[in-house]
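Friendly challenge for the regulars: who can give me the structure tokens for this chain first? No prize, just bragging rights.
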Amino acid sequence: MVSAVDAFVYGAAQVARIAWFQSQARLTARLSRGSFPKPKTPVSVPKETAVLREVLELLRRDWDNIRAGLYRMPHDLVPPPQRAVGDILRFLEDLPQVTDRRRTGRNDDVFRKPPPGTEALPRYFRQNFHFQTDGYLSVRSARLYDYQVEVLFRGAADAMRRQALPYLATFIERTAASGRRPQDLHLLDVGSGTGHFLSFVKDTWPLLPVTALDLSAPYLGEARNRLARWSGLAFVQAPAEAMPLPDASVDLVTCIYLFHELPRKIRAAAAAEMARVLKPGGRLVFVDSIQRGDRPDFDGILAYFPQAYYEPYYADYVAQDLVTLFERTGLLLGALDLAFMSKVLVFEKPCDTP
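First reply, four minutes later:
Bragging rights claimed.
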């Protein structure tokens, strides 16, 4: 049960959070002035006040889910001051390098000078995504990533991630009716990154066994650190398109903000792998960027985003029919939802699937 005090704490913390990341976004724009490319074609984008209204609506929805008992209040709602200071200092220290790459269009530093031990990783992965230093291939990048994303989304990224949780809750509730407890299930998170999403999962269902799979060793290391307080965790370094898991071995698959970073061919292979490892009757909960036409008022942002932040596969991602992609693997669409700049897709694996 949540109380009036909980509601006050949530509201006050989120207002402070949004104000902080809004200020960081404005500071970033000021310090990076002149580095952002001009749009290749004229685009129309929502006013900042309209975007802020959307963020506030997302937070209202997030609170409604917490109040309904679908998941717990965020454990990191108020970060320790020393962590906040460290985050902003690392962010500002790295910003000039990001700005320089954006200005020059340079995006292959990690391909030309790969960090030790990363030479065998797939070519599509060895890029400076978002123009960020080291791409996804260093401890420094792993420690910066979540803060960079929150600045980009004005403090709303975690709340968007949490919109996957209600669909885990309904699945777990359904299986409980048949006598299966959370500890009897198994969740696979594909593209776990730093483990931020999984921290919300484990905070709500601490006994649920979870496997975190990612291609980046440093990001998996950050996930290990973040999730160290919980048990029932396994970490696997592997690509989404070739997962070393048995057929029909997991009850739940989650995939959060991965597909827009993958080429189309790899997306298809990853979708097939998720379907393969799901048990009949299992559920896939997928969260990623909205696509063209989902929110016509945001189409201008979608068109400009890959130019400003170096997302080499994003333009193709926003044009792809994801429902058809997953249904070709034998999965069936169960739900489709939009949450600010994110899309939630839920797929079920039929019980009669071999």
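The beta strands are 187-190, 210-214, 233-237, 250-256, 278-289, 332-339, 342-348. The chain has a mean pLDDT of 93. Your move, everyone else.
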